[in-house]
C-alpha cells in the first residue's frame, strides 16, 4: 500500500509533526514507522512504556501511538503515568494500538484516558486517518485560541479610547478576569500596568520576563523580534503585529502588539501587548458555569471536576456519592448544555473558561 497517496482531510498543519511510537514487536514497529515517515511525520521509537517515559524527558510529541501488552511497562500503565505526572502533555492525543479486540478491552482503553483505540492487524489507512483527525482536532483548538486572542484584542481596543494613565490602569484592573495577559506600555516602551494573568506569565524563567530593562524574553531572538514590534507600534499608525516567544519545554507564547494611537504623552499608554499561552488550561469557575447554563450546585461541581480531567468513578468517590448519582447529574449537564458526549461537553466548558477565569483573591 502506498500510504503517501492517502487522501487525508487533516493533512494541513499535521506534516512534520512528531509521533512517539511505542511497540515491542520490532517488525511491526518498523512497518508503522515506515508508514508514518512516508506520510510526512517525524517519529520517535520506544519498545515499552518505561522507555517511552525516558523519551518524553527530552521530547514533546504531538501524538503518542502505543501498544497495550508490553514487557516491563504496558500501555495502560504508561498512559496512567503520563496523565498523573505530565500535565504538560494533557493536550497530546494518546492512541492505543492493540490485538485486544474484545468490547471490554476497548472500553477499558477509553476509560483510562485514551483518545482512540485501533485494532491489530494494523489497517494503515485507518491509522493515518485517525492520527490526522486527532492532530487536526488539536490544530483547530489552537486556531480557536488565536481567534479568541483577536476577539479580546478588539474588545480591549474598544475599551482603550481613554488616554490617561489612570484610566488605562482602571482598564487593566477590569481585564483581570481575562485568561489572556494584557500589558500596557508607555511611549518609551516601558511597562505601565498589566492584568493579573500577565503578572503570572512574567514571573517564570521560561518565556516572558519583566526586568529593569522592560519587557523581554528568555530567548535573544524573541527579545529582538519583540523590541522591533514594539518600536514599529510606537513609530506610527499600523495594524499591529504578532510575535511568538519560544520556550524551552513548552509551546511558544503568542503576543499581539497593538498600537493605541497615543504617542504624544509619554505618561499615557501607547501600546498594548496581549499574551496567550496555548498550553494554559484555566480552571473553570463553578459559579460562572452555574450562571451560564442554569446548573444546580451539584451539576456545577461535576462540570468543574470533568474539566479537571477526573474520571466519573473518581468523581463519585470524591463527592461521596454513587456512580448512578454522578451519571444522573451528567445527563442533566448534557441536556442543559445541548451536548450528547462527554468530550463535547468538556470542550464547550473549556471554551468558556478560556475567555474568562475567576480573579485571584489578593
From TrEMBL:
Domain of life: Bacteria
Organism: Microvirga brassicacearum
Protein name as annotated: DNA-binding response regulator
A biological process term (GO) from this entry: regulation of DNA-templated transcription
Domain HTH luxR-type: 288-353
A Pfam family matched in the record: Response_reg
CDD domains named among the record's database cross-references: REC_OmpR
Keywords: DNA-binding, Phosphoprotein, Transcription, Transcription regulation, Two-component regulatory system
Cross-referenced InterPro entries: CheY-like_superfamily (IPR011006), Sig_transdc_resp-reg_C-effctor (IPR016032), Sig_transdc_resp-reg_receiver (IPR001789), Tscrpt_reg_LuxR_C (IPR000792), WalR-like (IPR039420), WH-like_DNA-bd_sf (IPR036388)
Boundaries of every Response regulatory domain copy: 18-135
Cellular component, GO annotation: cytosol; protein-DNA complex
PROSITE patterns: HTH_LUXR_2 (PS50043), RESPONSE_REGULATORY (PS50110)
N-terminal signal peptide: none
Record flagged with keyword Transcription: yes
Alphabetized GO MF terms: phosphorelay response regulator activity; transcription cis-regulatory region binding
List of residues that carry 4-aspartylphosphate: 67
Amino acid at each position: 500500500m502506498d500510504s503517501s497517496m492517502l487522501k487525508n482531510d487533516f493533512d494541513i498543519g499535521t506534516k512534520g509533526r512528531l509521533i512517539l511510537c511505542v511497540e515491542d514487536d520490532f517488525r511491526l514497529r518498523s512497518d508503522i514507522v515506515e508508514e508514518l515517515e512516508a506520510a510526512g511525520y517525524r517519529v520517535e521509537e520506544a519498545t515499552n512504556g518505561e522507555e517511552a517515559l525516558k523519551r518524553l524527558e527530552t521530547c514533546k510529541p504531538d501524538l503518542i501511538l502505543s501498544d497495550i501488552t508490553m514487557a516491563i511497562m504496558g500501555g495502560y500503565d504508561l498512559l496512567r503515568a503520563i496523565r498523573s505526572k505530565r500535565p504538560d502533555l494533557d493536550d497530546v492525543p494518546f492512541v492505543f494500538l492493540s490485538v485486544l479486540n474484545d468490547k471490554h478491552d476497548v472500553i477499558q482503553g477509553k476509560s483510562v484516558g485514551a483518545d482512540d483505540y485501533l485494532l491489530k492487524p494494523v489497517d494503515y489507512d485507518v491509522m493515518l486517518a485517525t492520527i490526522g483527525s486527532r492532530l487536526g482536532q488539536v490544530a483547530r483548538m489552537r486556531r480557536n485560541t488565536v481567534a479568541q486572542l483577536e476577539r479580546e484584542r478588539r474588545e480591549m481596543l474598544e475599551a482603550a479610547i481613554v488616554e490617561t494613565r489612570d484610566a488605562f490602569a482602571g482598564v487593566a484592573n477590569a481585564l483581570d478576569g481575562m485568561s489572556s495577559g494584557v500589558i500596557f506600555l508607555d511611549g518609551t516602551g516601558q511597562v505601565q500596568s498589566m492584568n493579573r494573568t500577565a503578572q503570572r506569565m512574567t514571573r517564570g524563567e521560561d518565556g516572558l520576563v519583566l526586568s529593569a530593562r522592560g519587557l523581554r524574553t528568555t530567548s535573544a531572538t524573541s527579545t529582538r523580534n519583540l523590541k522591533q514590534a514594539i518600536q514599529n507600534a510606537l513609530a506610527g499608525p499600523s495594524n499591529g503585529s504578532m510575535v511568538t516567544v519560544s520556550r524551552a519545554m513548552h509551546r511558544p507564547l503568542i503576543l499581539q502588539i497593538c498600537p493605541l494611537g497615543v504617542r504624544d504623552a509619554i505618561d499615557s499608554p501607547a501600546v498594548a501587548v496581549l499574551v496567550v499561552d496555548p498550553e494554559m488550561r484555566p480552571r473553570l469557575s463553578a459559579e460562572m458555569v452555574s450562571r451560564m447554563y442554569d446548573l444546580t450546585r451539584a451539576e456545577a461541581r461535576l462540570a468543574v471536576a470533568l474539566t479537571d480531567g477526573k474520571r466519573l468513578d473518581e468523581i463519585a468517590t470524591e463527592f461521596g456519592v454513587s456512580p448512578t448519582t454522578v451519571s444522573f447529574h451528567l445527563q442533566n449537564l448534557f441536556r442543559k448544555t445541548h451536548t450528547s458526549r462527554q468530550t463535547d461537553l468538556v470542550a464547550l466548558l473549556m471554551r468558556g473558561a478560556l475567555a474568562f477565569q475567576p480573579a485571584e483573591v489578593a
